[in-house]
Amino acid sequence: MSEARTGVGPRVGVDLSVVVPAYNEERRLGPTLDAIVAHLTATEAAETWEVLVVDDGSTDGTREVVAAVTERDSRVQLIRGGPRNRGKGHALRLGVCASYGRRVLLTDADLAAPIDELELLDKALSEGHAAAIGSREAPGARIERRQHRLRENLGRAGNLLIRGLVVPGIRDTQCGFKLFDGERAREAFAASRLDGFGIDVEILRHFRRADWSVAEVPIRWSHQPGSKIRAGDYAHVLGELASLKGRSVRAAARSVRPTDVLAVLVFLLMAAALYAGRWIDPNGRYLPDSLQDQNQWEWFFAVTADNVAHLRNPLFSDFQGFPDGVNLMANTVMLGLSVPFTPVTLALGPAVTLGLVMTLGLAATAAAWYRLLVKRLVRHRGAAFTGAALAAFAPPMVSHANAHPNFIVLFMIPLIVDRALRLCAGTRTVRDGVVLGLMAAYQVFLGEEPLLLAAMGMLLFAAAYGAVRPDVARASWRPLLKGLGVAALTTLPLVAFFLSWQFFGPQSYKSIGHGDNAGNSPLALLSFAERSLLAGDRERADALSLNPTEQNAFYGWPLVLLALGIVVRLWERPLVKALGFTAVAAAVLSLGPEIRLPRTDLVLPGPWALLADRPLFESVIEGRVAMICAPVLGMLLALAFERLAEVPGLGTRYVGFLAITLALLPIVPAPLKSQDRPEVPSFIADGTWRSYVDTAAGETLVPVPLPDPGNAEALHWQTTARFGFRMPGGYFNGPYGEDRTGIYGAVPRHTSALLRDVRYTGRTPVIGEAWQAQARKDFAYWHAGALVLRPQYYDKQLRATVDKLVGRPGKWVGGVWVWDLHEGE
């Protein structure tokens, strides 16, 4: 790059630099410089501005004109761009990179936009924007003298193309009157490559990609004769845009470092190791800590695939819970994955599909957090990897990895967070709002409760960050609210029908209770989960949680202490303050409506009481709110990791990384427990059941006892039989009573309740004619063709009970006891 800067040397404390590109501007440049100098002399302090004229290979007296002005005012300087004309982009790059101003103004040599319009741009910059660009197309612009109609139309057509391909939302990219934050302008122009008129687009794209806010300001503008733009320049600009687009694609490919690929591969290996026991034999292994949820989720994936294959409504099924059926939308069947995975489910079975979804989904979630941390928080890849690993593989996530894919397949959440942050910049509010709406709509079909928890976490963070950075809050709240409004208008039409089906459709319910102890104990936040490799304590974890799939805290006291130390050490950073508040607030909310202090009889009211009875929140297991802490702690850890990596002292780094290691080692997850699952009886597997159940007549097969949340193995029978038969009972959420309160499983009937009591107590009741008559009513209600009992605990008592209810003994067929209800008719 050839350049020479004449006049005075580097200026200290320059507030405004004015850059004027010039090529053969002998006739127009003198009046322009006089107007600029006069205006700046009247409005700016004497030593706070400079004017840089970049001569781009002029062959006339341009340099002499500048020299004459420089003799009168040394703040006007000439930068020589080289012996030949290379283009406006080259000249602007030289001028901006040579500037020293806190602000940098670009203006053309013809001064088509009067210099006093600087006041309007300056006002926009003072409101927090990184750039304020003059616009001839924004509402309020005044065109005092127009260009030739052909040239004007070509310019507008070019702007439409530019908006569509490169910088959506900006009406006029080519106006030559622009004001930038100086440091950001120098960074952008130093990174630029275009030498022609396309430089304006390249710089604005740089600002957009860096999420630096750009304001488009309507100005006065008047076409000046003597323009240097020729007809061929329009084609040249299009060529530059094509080059810019191609380079951006190549740059995006190059931006993926080998370290990033390695991080994703490691996340995939971590997820596969967690499920190693299942992958030994995906169709024949079961995760016992999932309780009955693995059977339920395999059924959800299988019934969705069956509905899609047979072109049935994917929002409802009566294959279990017959005759009332199941509202699948109200049971979180993850249509966003169960529908796309239909070919896999039909070809390989629901067990393989569930294994793939949970393994790949967990790895994708970690990769998404990694991307967000690299993009928004830290540049150090090791710091981002550590934080993302904690966010995705924290103890509560591993607990849910046993049974709840909707709580571990969260790759959309980091993308939603990133898009919400983009809204705060206010650069592409409508476009970002639409994208956020589409993302939120898709997340609804992956899991609504995780979306609600994510929204809670973002709201807590926004409130805290706004309190410590009110200037940012003032600049962000308008575009954020506008973007959220656009997102809502985008989301609602896409999900309205599905949500109406969920809340008002057949078998919908109002709310579902989880008992009085669904909140975390304060001790759960400091203790270790069962599946923590080195410090796991099953007995203590069971005592402090609802079950193995709901160990929603258990971060361990070393990690909690480390997080506290990070917050104290980095307290001067507003981001750390906001993250610390978010973690503490989420932890306190997770304690529930009543906080029971350990080792005392003292019970304090918890803030969750304010939300417990509100719509949407009433069905949330409040202990799950602590899951918000996982990504927050991951972010704090990433910040500390990066700060340590920059510390010059070897001893300090050693101590810091040792502390991180000691905090994380106790919660490193062990592979999930797995065991051989019970074989499906041959009565079901080989199709013998078809001789006993007339499905054409609407008959069902009734397992004994009926499947429920405590024993849902019959759902596995049904998927094995490829939904050849329907059955009553089941494991799902459905309504109960006139107020349609949500319960787990089908509405109990007298016979199903009787059989359930025998299963759990082993006591055989006295069966008389009244019970037999009730059983006949229930069998008719269920459209029962046959009752089936497989060997199990208390099977003798169950068999004796059914013998008496039916009035005759069952027959041993294909590994089960069968009562054919057609006999004796």
Automatic annotation (TrEMBL):
<comment type="similarity">
    <text>Belongs to the glycosyltransferase 2 family.</text>
</comment>
<dbReference type="Pfam" id="PF00535">
    <property type="entry name" value="Glycos_transf_2"/>
</dbReference>
<dbReference type="InterPro" id="IPR035518">
    <property type="entry name" value="DPG_synthase"/>
</dbReference>
<keyword id="KW-0735">Signal-anchor</keyword>
<feature type="transmembrane region" description="Helical">
    <location>
        <begin position="344"/>
        <end position="370"/>
    </location>
</feature>
<keyword id="KW-0328">Glycosyltransferase</keyword>
<feature type="transmembrane region" description="Helical">
    <location>
        <begin position="261"/>
        <end position="280"/>
    </location>
</feature>
<feature type="transmembrane region" description="Helical">
    <location>
        <begin position="451"/>
        <end position="468"/>
    </location>
</feature>
<keyword id="KW-0472">Membrane</keyword>
<feature type="transmembrane region" description="Helical">
    <location>
        <begin position="625"/>
        <end position="642"/>
    </location>
</feature>
<comment type="pathway">
    <text>Protein modification; protein glycosylation.</text>
</comment>
<keyword id="KW-0812">Transmembrane</keyword>
<keyword id="KW-0256">Endoplasmic reticulum</keyword>
<keyword id="KW-0808">Transferase</keyword>
<feature type="transmembrane region" description="Helical">
    <location>
        <begin position="382"/>
        <end position="398"/>
    </location>
</feature>
<feature type="transmembrane region" description="Helical">
    <location>
        <begin position="654"/>
        <end position="672"/>
    </location>
</feature>
<dbReference type="InterPro" id="IPR029044">
    <property type="entry name" value="Nucleotide-diphossugar_trans"/>
</dbReference>
<keyword id="KW-1133">Transmembrane helix</keyword>
<feature type="transmembrane region" description="Helical">
    <location>
        <begin position="578"/>
        <end position="595"/>
    </location>
</feature>
<dbReference type="InterPro" id="IPR001173">
    <property type="entry name" value="Glyco_trans_2-like"/>
</dbReference>
<protein>
    <recommendedName>
        <fullName>dolichyl-phosphate beta-glucosyltransferase</fullName>
        <ecNumber>2.4.1.117</ecNumber>
    </recommendedName>
</protein>
<feature type="transmembrane region" description="Helical">
    <location>
        <begin position="480"/>
        <end position="504"/>
    </location>
</feature>
<feature type="domain" description="Glycosyltransferase 2-like">
    <location>
        <begin position="17"/>
        <end position="164"/>
    </location>
</feature>
<feature type="transmembrane region" description="Helical">
    <location>
        <begin position="554"/>
        <end position="571"/>
    </location>
</feature>
